[in-house]
Amino acid sequence: MSATGPDARAIAAAVRAGERTAAEVLEEHLGRIAAREAELHAFNHLTEDAARAAAAAVDAAVAAGQDPGPLAGVPVALKDNLCTRGVPTTCSSRILEGWCPPYDATVVTRLAAAGAVAVGKTNLDEFAMGSSTENSAFGPTRNPHDTTRVPGGSSGGSAAAVAAGFAPLSLGSDTGGSIRQPAALCGVVGVKPTYGLVSRYGLVAFGSSLDQIGPFATTVADAALVCEVIGGHDPADSTSLPEAFPELTPHLADGVDGLRVGVIAEMMGEGISPDVAARVRSAAEALASAGAVVEEVSVPAVTHGLSAYYLVAPAEASSNLARYDGVRYGNRVDAPTAGEMMEATRTAGFGDEVKRRIMLGTYALSAGYYDAFYGKALKVRTLIREDFDRAYASHDVLLSPTSPTTAFPLGAKVDDPLTMYLNDVCTIPTNLAGHPAMSVPYGTGDDGLPVGVQVLAPARGEVAMFRTAAVLEGSLR
To answer: Residue 84 in contact with residue 118, Cβ under 8 Å?
Structure first.
């Protein structure tokens, strides 16, 4: 049981057993949305009618003696960069305002097949570019714990929806920390799986070598269940690993006795708030008390992660966002010539942060600067992966803060992009390496707002990662 009601597994068990109807569960959550959505703005678009139809189908299956699936009747919120057939998918950008995809993302299809009920599309930083959900063309999302604060980003709407009890589960995307950082600031569980273990088909691309879809949940067990549902090979995604997602649920009670845990030294010093660092140390002590072997470990190259990321990600974004030209889909601003039309469309359609990253990426890829900037960033990315590999040779999982601070006030950093970018300093290295990592709520900071502890693991190391997260979660009870 979470602070906002029954967790997803409890809801699904009750619906499958006929103790509750999916329709009742849905109306309960729609009531919560009606009560606070105007205050928080977690959603760009609600799909009440389609949700009611989906809930009715789940109840009909139960009445017929069929099993609707492991997420039967569980409301779920979807980040608005996941394609949903016939439903507006805007990426919180004017350039895609009102665009309805003709197909569903693979993760959306898999959730529905498991019996989940989608309630709407959540707000995000435009095209997932941001750390506070203040870059949305449709206005910011507010943190449910303190509405004067940001929820984090770019998946701020998805994190806020779970934290506010609008849905027990949501999906986000994580390119440089966009699931884990808002999970930390909103006090929920957030998971970025190994790159390739969850299909990206139907995710509107930002940085194709970095993007990964993952869940938000109120409990570690719920997050594990969602990963099992949405993960696994997808032939529609050329970067999908040819294997099933590892079974997590059977291992959640395995504990950490004998597990080797490294606390990343470079992520515990300058720039990390003392109250956040103190919670990470408390988490390390809890793991040691549970039988883990805990020690400090150095991963030197992570200090260059931010610099490398802000060349690699914008370079990929400048390529991916070239498709929004007013010709094929999305909004169009007419002009006398094709060139003028494209320029006018992109000028009107993209916000400042998106324009900033497109220009940065295009510059980094230009003929005279490719080797000096983008090429060098790729070499740093390799160094980061190699340093992580050395750390994992002697450690099963690593530990760090998720975000350097607790949630900061709305408007505090919007005019200073470099300060805003520093919010992802602890999460970016994992994306560059392609490894899994997750944020687990671990108490509060000096201001009473949530602190997240990040558990990192090597590629395909989700089982050890979730075992560790489950022990951390249990140590707070």
So the answer is: yes
Spot the catalytic one: 178, 318, 403, 439: 178
CA-based nearest residue to 99, from 140, 125, 127: 127
Q: Report the distance separating Cα 47 and Cα 117, nearest Å.
A: 10
User: What is the percent of the chain with per-residue pLDDT over 90, rounded to a whole number?
Assistant: 96
Alpha helical stretches, state H, 41-170: 48-63, 106-113, 156-163
Eight-class DSSP state of 142: -
Question: Is-catalytic flag, 155?
Answer: no
Half-sphere CA count of 25, side-chain side, radius 13 A:
36
Question: What is the Cα–Cα distance from 23 to 51, expressed in whole angstroms?
Answer: 9
Select which of 92, 93, 131, 154 is catalytic: 154
| Cα separation, 451 vs 182, whole angstroms | 10
Q: Which helix (H) or strand (E) holds 265?
A: none
413 catalytic residue (yes or no): no
Is 251 strand, coil or helix? helix
Q: What ranges in 114-253 are assigned the alpha helix state H?
A: 156-163, 180-186, 220-230
Q: In terms of Cα–Cα distance, which of 198, 201, 225, 223 is closest to 212?
A: 198
Place of tokens 């549902």: 229
Q: For residue 5, what pLDDT band results from cuts at 50, 70 and 90?
A: low
| 188 token code pair | 């929920």
Whole-angstrom distance, CA of residue 453 vs CA of residue 276: 9
Cα separation, 474 vs 437, whole angstroms: 19
Cα–Cα distances in Å, from 29 out to 60, 88, 107, 117, 251? Answer: 20, 21, 22, 11, 30
CA distances from 180 to 105, 152, 215, 412 (A): 21, 9, 10, 21
Query: CB-based contacts of 143: which residues, under 8 Å, 6+ apart?
Result: 149, 150, 151, 152, 160, 163, 185, 186, 407, 449
Confidence of residue 4 (pLDDT cuts 50, 70, 90): low
| All structural domains of the chain | 8-251 (3.90.1300.10)
Residue of 327, 325, 345, 349 whose CA lies nearest to 335: 345
Q: Is 178 among the catalytic positions? A: yes
Bond into 154 cis (ω within 30): yes
Q: What is the structure's pLDDT at 330?
A: 87
Other Cβ atoms within 10 Å of 230 Cβ, number: 26
User: Exactly one of 79, 121, 192, 413 is catalytic; which is it?
Assistant: 79
The pLDDT score that the predictor gives to residue 315 is 96
Helices (H), 64-145: 106-113
Token look-up 């002009």 returns: 335
